[in-house]
Prior knowledge:
Blueprint: H1 3-33, H2 39-42, H3 51-62, H4 66-79, H5 85-106, H6 111-137
Helix pairs in contact: 1-3, 1-4, 1-5, 4-6, 5-6
Amino acid sequence: MSTQAILLPLFVEVILTFLLWIGMATLRTRDFSTGVVRPEDIALREPNWSKRTLQVAYSFSNQFEIPVLFYVLTILAYVTHLAGLIFVILAWIFVIFRLLHAYVHVTSNTVRVRGTLYGIAVVALAINWAIYIFEVLTLPRPV
């Protein structure tokens, strides 16, 4: 697989994270400028932001949970030259369902739908990890 094919899903996940950060920053700025929140209301990370701002902020925070395992796996698979077609397909499944999850999270926030999308992404990632672990553990060893 080409470098671009392997890393493109990772790049899309990174872009998603930055877009959510921009959305969160914009909403937080609005909350300050409209007086919805004051610095002392959130100085110790109290969740006193507007509901909409919290919704986007939680989606942003979520990008530093399960996706971290995706980033590590992608880098490992790339460096060890074990990222084949199945890896890339599963990576895209993960990223597409993360995009859908983030979309639902910042729009309707329907927990059941969001949970299903999250679950599909995690299963794709877990399968990718299982395949990678198997491939690494069954590599021929030099004598």
